């Protein structure tokens, strides 16, 4: 990725870009859950696909304000775009170096060290981790399948007459045989095996080293069918046209994530974004912020609140899912996670 796809100039406007309250409440949630399990140190925040770094900025600000002691705390970004690494560095760090940031550690403006990595495998192990995936799983590769009178067929991409086009496989592919649930009732499904592999890695780390995971994304619970689409300049765009210049996405199947993680971690949720933020006190936080701002800023806060909470905007479409180590099963029954 060689450009910034987030914000008003990109193709995606994300919740952290809309209102600081969103990131603050996620920061409060992580801090609260970390405290509930005994405030283990050292610990680290691991964010997948941090975008511009806006969400991490809000979370780190919360951590710096809530803590009264020096923390043995570090931040790790998993980012495949060198360009976005530079954007994140400009947002969070005071250092102006322009060189390759992978494997580099810089001090943030909150005095927490930040390191960039291309993959989770590069992130230090044997440390309690707070894993955050906000609008990350929607960008994971998917397999698409269509039910036909002859059975399930995979939707493939072919090149014909100088153009890319979708075609159906002539016979069941290996992916169709391995991935389709025998009880599947839909006629069209999208499955992301890569998401399952990532969940394997995360839950293994949580089981061995301790940790908490929060997944936030737009998606459904095993109900939608054909959601794969492209965006260019904030408009829907044929995903097979202008390849490389179009941002591709598909709604996250939270039923798939939940089923896949079940038995490897304690799965909490999913709940809607509106429900999570309401339970975390967004209304009270909004009123506090409005007390210290002018009329124009108050209007901006109210507009952002509506986008985050309105069922016709992000409130219902976005979901929150949390994962905890199985060793906390009895503890969570007594002290359930906030927000859910």
What structural keywords apply?
single chain; about 350 residues; alpha/beta; 9-stranded mixed β-sheet; 4-stranded antiparallel β-sheet; 11 helices; 16 strands; about 25% strand
How would you characterize the overall build of this protein?
With 340 residues, the protein is of the alpha/beta class. 34% of the residues lie in helices and 26% in strands. The strands form 3 sheets. Strands 1, 2, 3, 4, 5, 10, 14, 15 and 16 form a 9-stranded mixed β-sheet that branches. The mean pLDDT is 93.
Question: What is the element layout, followed by pairings?
Answer:
Elements: H1 15-18, H2 20-36, E1 43-48, H3 54-66, E2 73-78, H4 82-92, E3 105-107, E4 113-117, E5 128-134, E6 143-148, E7 151-160, E8 163-168, H5 174-179, E9 188-191, H6 193-209, E10 211-220, E11 229-232, E12 235-237, E13 247-249, E14 252-253, H7 254-261, E15 266-272, H8 273-279, H9 282-291, H10 295-309, E16 318-324, H11 329-334
Parallel strand pairs: 1-2, 1-5, 2-4, 5-10, 10-14
Antiparallel strand pairs: 3-4, 6-7, 6-9, 7-8, 10-16, 11-12, 11-13, 15-16
Helix pairs in contact: 2-3, 6-7, 9-10
